[in-house]
From TrEMBL:
Family, as annotated: Belongs to the ABC transporter superfamily.
Domain ABC transporter residues, every copy: 12-248
Gene3D superfamilies named in the record: P-loop containing nucleotide triphosphate hydrolases
The keyword ATP-binding is assigned to this record: yes
MF-aspect GO terms: ABC-type amino acid transporter activity; ATP binding; ATP hydrolysis activity
Record keyword Cell inner membrane present: no
Protein name: Polar amino acid ABC transporter ATP-binding protein
Native source organism of the sequence: Parathermosynechococcus lividus PCC 6715
GO biological process: organic phosphonate transport
Length: 252
């Protein structure tokens, strides 16, 4: 906020976003906004369209109608490779299944995109990667391959890799869902730290405690529609919609 009380800067805005897979209408008139430095938790039943919405935001899915503006760039229903490149430079994504390159060491995984896409000199990229590995608590793993890591370690490498591109927005799709319960905490701790550092984040999650404690706003999606959104306190303590209440009863 500046002294004039200006509205916060909006980094993501969808309006009337509609997405179909064939006949199946999976996103219905989605109006979704994320302000700079906001952490938004996206919750809802399986199949409600959470991943699809996230994937639309960085052009991993096309859409049929409505609009997406991200970091001031219009992302049309079917983006060109050049448009995708511009968006993905600045919008990082962390997936449930890590998606690390199996034939590359941890360090190589992290420096690949900064060198190829950001044209960083290898020395600089390596310094940054080592700094990021220390940040996620994995400095000693720089020369190992992903298959030598636990799921929680893989996910922390995936987060370091996303951060190495110095993104302005990070999208997380159930980053802890594939992890053994005892490994979830380390990953959430890294995400919590990013939130404290004011990273703009959209997090699809089933970790309601994380949503409650870390997010600025919770958006509840069901059957392709935003049913309700609000502060964690509003949504978890005083849900307005019956559907939200029923969902929360099942997951809390
Ligand atoms: P969520 O992440 O909330 O579990 P998804 O976004 O993955 O939900 O899926 C929303 C709906 O779209 C589901 O009905 C799912 O079966 C369908 N869907 C997702 N991906 C595809 C695809 N590639 N092709 C066809 N249908 C899909
Ligand atoms: Mg999903």
């Amino acid at each position: 906020m500046n002294g004039l009380g200006a509205a916060p800067e909006i980094l993501i805005e969808t309006r009337n976003l509609n997405k179909y897979f064939g006949d199946r209408h999976v996103l219905k008139n989605i109006d979704f906004r994320v302000a700079k430095q906001e952490v938004v938790a996206l919750i809802g039943p399986s199949g409600s369209g959470k991943s699809t919405l996230l994937r639309c935001l960085n052009g991993l899915e096309t859409y049929q109608s409505g609009s997406i503006v991200i970091l001031g760039h219009r992302l049309p229903p079917v983006a060109t490779p050049q448009q995708l490149k511009v968006i993905r430079r600045d919008v990082g994504m962390v997936f449930q299944n890590f998606n690390l390159f199996p034939h590359m060491t941890v360090l190589q995984n992290i420096i690949e995109a900064p060198i190829l896409v950001r044209k960083l000199p290898k020395r600089l990229a390596t310094d940054m990667a080592e700094h990021l590995l220390a940040k996620v608590g994995l400095a000693e793993k720089r020369h190992v391959y992903p298959n030598q890591l636990s799921g929680g370690q893989k996910q922390r490498v995936a987060i370091a890799r996303a951060l190495a591109m110095q993104p302005q927005i990070l999208l997380f799709d159930e980053p802890t869902s594939a992890l053994d319960p005892e490994l979830v905490g380390d990953v959430l701790a890294v995400m919590r730290q990013l939130a404290e550092e004011a990273m703009t984040m959209v997090v699809v999650t089933h970790e309601m405690q994380f949503a409650r404690e870390v997010s600025c706003r919770v958006v509840f999606l069901a059957e392709g529609q935003i049913i309700e959104e609000g502060s964690p306190h509003e949504l978890f303590r005083h849900p307005q919609q019956e559907r939200t209440r029923l969902f929360l009863e099942r997951v809390l």
